[in-house]
Amino acid sequence: MKNFCLPVFVICVTVCSWSPTFSAEEKSKEPSPSAPKAENAVKEKKDPQKEGWKPLLNGENLDGWSLPGFGGEGDVQVKKGNLTIGVGILCTGIKYEKEFPKKDYEIRYEAKRTKGYDFFAALTFPVGDSFCTFINGGWGGGVVGLSCLDGADASENSTTQYYSFKEETWYKFRVAVTEDKIKVWIGKEDQDPELKIDQPLEGCKVGTRLEVQIYEPLGLATWCTEGVIRHLEYRLLKPEETAKIKAEIKK
After folding, report:
1. Using CA atoms, how far apart are residues 48 and 158, in angstroms rounded to an integer?
2. How many CB atoms within 10 Å of residue 174?
3. Residue-wise DSSP of 60-84
4. What percentage of the chain has pLDDT greater than the value 90?
5. What does the pLDDT read at residue 47?
6. pLDDT score recorded for residue 50
7. CATH code for position 225
8. Cβ(131)–Cβ(207) under 8 Å?
9. Does 217 sit behind a cis peptide bond, omega within 30 degrees of 0 on the bond before it?
10. Gap between the Cα atoms of 199 and 201, Å rounded
């Protein structure tokens, strides 16, 4: 009996004292309850240049837009994310059919002239209960301004300027509208746009020419020219931004 119990005791001690061992590679595969999740480890930083901006073109088709015209318009198509408004006999353009604010907003886009000699991305936009058009490269290719102010075209009012637009070159445009002002910035693709138009609206009658009234309230058009547009988007201005513009009038 004594000789039988001793081996059993030894076997039990040996079995109970054994524990499995793992390689370093196997241990690395074990989940760590204290390790933070990857999605929480890195927080995305907001880009102030993108905050609040909403696209007006989806880069695939003309959803939300229509193609009004008098006849003789050029081809309009969306390709590789860009909108191309082709050469027409006179004016060719698109009209936004969804709801859009009447004031306290800003629009920005990039455009280039690829054929022709006149405006290549004129923007018609709401100004309160009226409308106005920003002309880029009109009257032979170099006139910049607002049409119309007190009945005068972009070529003959206080906003008239001349800008050299090179073919196949991207340009940046920004238009801000409040009840007090229309402000326009222009710049090349690799530059920050510069303020070119700073037009007070008090006592000023704003309107559009007959040729672009079919694009109201919001539209883009070319004149005997092919233009390519991309990154068309808008945002609502913050109360402090509109207040700042109002303060500029009082100075």
Report:
1. 33
2. 19
3. SS-TTEE---SS----EEEETTEEE
4. 76
5. 58
6. 74
7. 2.60.120.560
8. yes
9. yes
10. 6
Q: What is the pTM of this model?
A: 0.81
Q: Which residues of the chain have pLDDT under 50?
A: 1-44
Give a yes or no: residue 43 inside a domain. no
Nearest-CA neighbor of 128 among 151, 160, 105?
105
Taking the C-alpha atoms of residue 192 and residue 146, their distance in angstroms, rounded to an integer, is: 21
Q: Residue 45: its pLDDT value, please?
A: 56
Q: Identify the pLDDT of residue 48.
A: 58
Q: How far apart are CA 184 and CA 172, in angstroms?
A: 10
Segments forming the whole domain that contains residue 169: 54-250
* Total number of domains constituting the chain: 1
Q: Helix (H, G, I), strand (E, B), or coil: what is residue 221?
A: strand
Collapsing DSSP to helix, strand or coil, 195 comes out as strand
- The full DSSP string for 98-164 is S---SSSEEEEEEEEEEEESS-SSEEEEEETTEEEEEEEEETTTTEEEEE-BTTB-TTSSTT-EE--
